[in-house]
Amino acid sequence: GPNGAGKTTTLLAISGLISRAEGTVLLQGNDITQLSPTQKAQRGLQHVPEDRSLFPSLTVAETLKLVETPDVDREWIDDLFPALVPLAKRPVAALSGGEQQMLTLARALSLGPSVLMVDEMSLGLAPKIVASLFPVLRRVAEERGCGVLIVEQHVHLALDAVDRAYVIGDGEIVAEGSADEIKPKIVDLINTYLG
Known about the structure:
There is one protein chain. This protein is of the alpha/beta class and 195 residues long. Helix content is 42%, strand content 16%. The protein has one domain (7-194): 3-Layer(aba) Sandwich (Rossmann fold), CATH 3.40.50. The chain has helices at 7-15, 37-42, 60-67, 74-80, 97-109, 127-144, 155-161, 179-182, 186-194, and strands at residues 26-27, 30-31, 45-48, 115-119, 147-151, 164-169, 172-178. The strands form 3 sheets. It has a 3-stranded parallel β-sheet, sandwiched between helices. Strands 1-2 form a two-stranded antiparallel ribbon. A two-stranded antiparallel ribbon has the order 6-7. The relative contact order is 0.14.
């Protein structure tokens, strides 16, 4: 959807970071609507915000250590983001935007989510970096059975990585379907809703 359509607001409401006007949030069939953001995260819902929310003075390794659990598969995370491995001792403030986005995703995945919500992953990143991150999210879904909900301005890249697509306008879903169903309609949808 266009700016102001309600995409980020939807993710914030699902996460419990803002109050909802209505609706219910189900996670694996359980109603988690009234749970706190922390409780939702503990149940497997991870939200990767568009601002990345990293501590600039921490190193890559320290950032990941903050969320590490005994169950974390560090080798798998390192395999998803090999560019981060040699940067373990580098402060977050010295990372490029793409490296920071990889770290933000690695941090969320270190918690073993059942659902990963990613808000505007491409914000401020070079197209080449953005294109490299979508296959990572696809791998997460396929290899770990993790549901991935992506809010993204690069519609064509997103459609190549997802199973289903939803177009939001004024807080409402105005179009939805499989990626294959949406792709032929994308020009009309962009002209109508994404302007």
